[in-house]
């Protein structure tokens, strides 16, 4: 996992159809265009984390990144585990992630 994070670097998230898996993981890296695509299993989590950080801390997202994250958020809703994790984090931090709370 550390090597994947190192490969991710500051690459932009994207949809990369037809790209080969990296190190046997469902994680795609396109070094030429500096873009990555995480596994479907974590796209929603990645989207909600980035949308939350942008909203909470004023981190600017490009229009394309924001649209992609919103699409992933809708396509891959929070799991029961993610919702419970969010409740636990909110109890510690004192605020919740509205991108998770808004989903029934």
Automatic annotation (TrEMBL):
InterPro entries: Endonuclease-I (IPR007346), His-Me_finger_sf (IPR044925). GO terms for molecular function: deoxyribonuclease I activity. Pfam families: Endonuclease_1. Keywords: Endonuclease, Hydrolase, Nuclease. It comes from the Bacteria. Its EC number is 3.1.21.-, 3.1.21.1. Belongs to the EndA/NucM nuclease family. This is Endonuclease-1. It comes from Legionella birminghamensis.
């Amino acid at each position: 996992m550390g090597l994947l994070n190192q490969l991710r670097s500051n690459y932009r998230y994207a949809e990369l159809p037809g790209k080969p898996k990296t190190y046997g993981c469902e994680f795609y890296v396109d070094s030429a265009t500096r873009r990555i695509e995480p596994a479907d299993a974590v796209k929603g989590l990645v989207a909600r984390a980035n949308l939350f950080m942008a909203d909470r801390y004023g981190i600017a997202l490009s229009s394309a990144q924001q649209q992609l994250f919103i699409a992933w958020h809708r396509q891959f809703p929070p799991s029961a585990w993610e919702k419970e994790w969010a409740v636990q984090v909110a109890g510690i931090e004192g605020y919740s992630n509205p991108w998770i709370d808004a989903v029934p």
